[in-house]
Write a structure and sequence with these properties.
It is a single chain. By secondary structure, the protein is an alpha/beta fold. The chain has a single domain, classed as 6-pyruvoyl tetrahydropterin synthase/QueD (Tetrahydropterin Synthase, Chain A). The protein has helices at residues 23-26, 57-72, 84-91, 106-123; strands spanning 5-15, 29-41, 75-79, 97-100, 128-138, 141-146. A hairpin with a 2-residue loop joins strand 5 (128-138) and strand 6 (141-146). Strands 4-3-1-2-5-6 form a six-stranded mixed β-sheet. The radius of gyration is 17 Å and the shape is elongated. It contains four helices and six strands.
């Protein structure tokens, strides 16, 4: 038995998918997304009879919420193969860009965000691990990622999702 710490953040984003079969999704378009992160203790420990917390919520979610608010909200998510990356860099250097390995699908984003959140937790030396990331893309469509992101993400040890910084590309 274990406790789950759950926190949710809403953000707006735009993306386009160039590798799929949908002309509709090849046009940049946006979503108002809800990302929910479930954290559990790496090793179950009993409550201490004093503070009785697995972890302080403010500490567990603070860095993550800042990242979502300052780097994901109102960002444009593009595949590293998308020619719009070069155009955006040249013409719109202030844009928030999230560059992904292949199309920025909701499935990929859930795994990327699980990896990034875990890096933040590890850098903060908490005893927590990411158990689940749920992204609600629309009120009727969600993706839930559970497990180790290394099992599904490209093996790039230097990629932004493996770093405990605010990067969203490279």
């Amino acid at each position: 038995m274990s406790f789950v710490l759950r926190f949710t953040r809403r953000f707006s984003m735009a993306h386009r998918l160039i590798a799929g079969q949908s002309d509709k999704c090849a046009t940049p378009h946006g979503h108002n997304e809800l990302v929910t992160v479930d954290l559990v203790a790496k090793r179950p420990t009993p409550l201490d009879g004093d503070a009785n917390m697995v972890a302080e919520f403010a500490r567990a979610k603070g860095r993550w919420h800042r990242f979502v608010d300052e780097h994901l909200d109102h960002a444009l998510q593009l595949s590293e193969h998308d020619p719009l990356v070069t155009i955006a860099d040249a013409q719109f250097p202030g844009w928030r860009l999230v560059i992904t390995p292949g199309d920025p699908t909701t499935e990929l984003l859930a795994a990327l965000l699980a990896a990034k959140c875990q890096r933040f937790l590890d850098a903060d030396t908490t005893s927590l691990r990411v158990a689940r990331v749920t992204i609600e893309e629309t009120p009727t469509n969600s993706v839930v990622f559970e497990g180790d992101p290394r099992d599904v993400l490209p093996a790039r040890d230097d990629a932004w999702w493996w770093r405990a910084d605010d990067s969203t590309r490279g």
